[in-house]
Amino acid sequence: MPKAPAPTSPYWKLQRQLTRLNTFLFRRTRGKVGGSFFGGAPVLLLHHVGRKSGQARISPLIYVDDSPRLVVVASKGGVDAHPAWYHNLMAMTATEVELPGGERRRVRPRVAEGAERTRLWERAVAIYKPYAAYATYTERTIPVVVLEPADAT
């Protein structure tokens, strides 16, 4: 299996720069630029805190609108490890997301299981087909994360 690049590699530095650019454009244009991914898949900005660093982070993620819930897929990790944003998010009781148009929502995460996961996975793959291909060459089950509305308190 291919080894994931080290977090300090040029690849990850480029990833961080692209994330900053996407976030800037998303906010500046209220999601008109940076609010969708290749093929038109909608993007939200997920706010989370690094478990080890304690630093605030933002991750642009493709989402499915399952009103009033939002759904994201933890696909961009290593072959056998979930992405850092997933671990950060699951360690939090609640956080905030930004949607195109400037809407902000307070949400709490949970992982979908069973029939719900199957239904939401199919919707995510319909929006962004590369998820299905990615699932065939990773050793892990890709989590489907439901972002439920959280109380404002």
Automatic annotation (TrEMBL):
<dbReference type="GO" id="GO:0005886">
    <property type="term" value="C:plasma membrane"/>
</dbReference>
<dbReference type="InterPro" id="IPR012349">
    <property type="entry name" value="Split_barrel_FMN-bd"/>
</dbReference>
<dbReference type="GO" id="GO:0070967">
    <property type="term" value="F:coenzyme F420 binding"/>
</dbReference>
<dbReference type="GO" id="GO:0016491">
    <property type="term" value="F:oxidoreductase activity"/>
</dbReference>
<protein>
    <recommendedName>
        <fullName>Nitroreductase</fullName>
    </recommendedName>
</protein>
<comment type="similarity">
    <text>Belongs to the F420H(2)-dependent quinone reductase family.</text>
</comment>
<dbReference type="Pfam" id="PF04075">
    <property type="entry name" value="F420H2_quin_red"/>
</dbReference>
<dbReference type="InterPro" id="IPR004378">
    <property type="entry name" value="F420H2_quin_Rdtase"/>
</dbReference>
